[in-house]
Design a protein that fits this description.
CATH topology of the largest domain: Rna Polymerase Sigma Factor, Chain: A
Strand content: under 5%
Structural class: mainly alpha
Number of strands: 0
CATH architecture of the largest domain: Orthogonal Bundle
Shape: globular
Order of helices and strands: HHHHHHHHH
CATH class of the largest domain: Mainly Alpha
Radius of gyration: 18 Å
Distance between the termini: 52 Å
Length: 169
């Protein structure tokens, strides 16, 4: 049973990290429903394993890596291999566009954010992850290198490739 003090601590962690975990999950899953499942799974792990963090940077890095690992686990599941993901994604996209039409005009900022997300989602997963961590989360390539256990030179190369791909869009 979780005590009141721990409950408040987990709520504060949730409030600080939920958007970050969701965005990270969206990068991998490209599906809001799966991303929500990943968010739930990450925070359930924090509660179940009574995970504590040294500081907010440790908390942030742990949440990003946990979301990434939960996504990988999701893709390995037997259910995932039995579902046509491309068809499901197209269906969700069609439903989302219909919902947007019903809400009326979107502001220019929302349109720009949506367009940026579309371009980001077209990148291969490894490039998408690096672009997200570097530009959106503000990690340096050295920090990303340590987080992902990948050489910095490989990250620079992947980032350059991602930039070329984005420019060509």
């Amino acid at each position: 049973m979780i005590n009141r003090e721990r409950s408040l601590e987990v709520k504060e962690i949730y409030d600080r990290q939920v958007d970050r975990v969701y965005r990270t999950a969206m990068i991998y899953t490209k599906n809001p429903h799966d991303a929500e499942d990943v968010v739930q799974s990450v925070f359930c792990t924090i509660i179940a394993k009574d995970i504590s963090f040294e500081n907010e940077e440790h908390e942030r890095a742990w949440c990003i890596l946990a979301a990434k690992n939960k996504c990988k686990d999701m893709f390995k599941s037997s259910w995932r291999s039995k579902v046509d993901l491309k068809e499901s994604a197209e269906q969700l996209s069609t439903n989302a566009e219909g919902a947007e039409d019903n809400k009326g005009a979107w502001t220019q900022t929302q349109d720009n954010l949506r367009e940026a997300q579309k371009v980001l989602m077209m990148l291969p997963t490894d490039q998408r992850e690096i672009v997200y961590l570097h530009y959106y989360e503000g990690y340096t390539l050295k920090e990303i290198s340590e987080m992902l256990d990948v050489k910095e030179s490989k990250l620079r190369s992947a980032l350059a490739s991602a930039k070329r791909a984005i420019r060509s869009e």
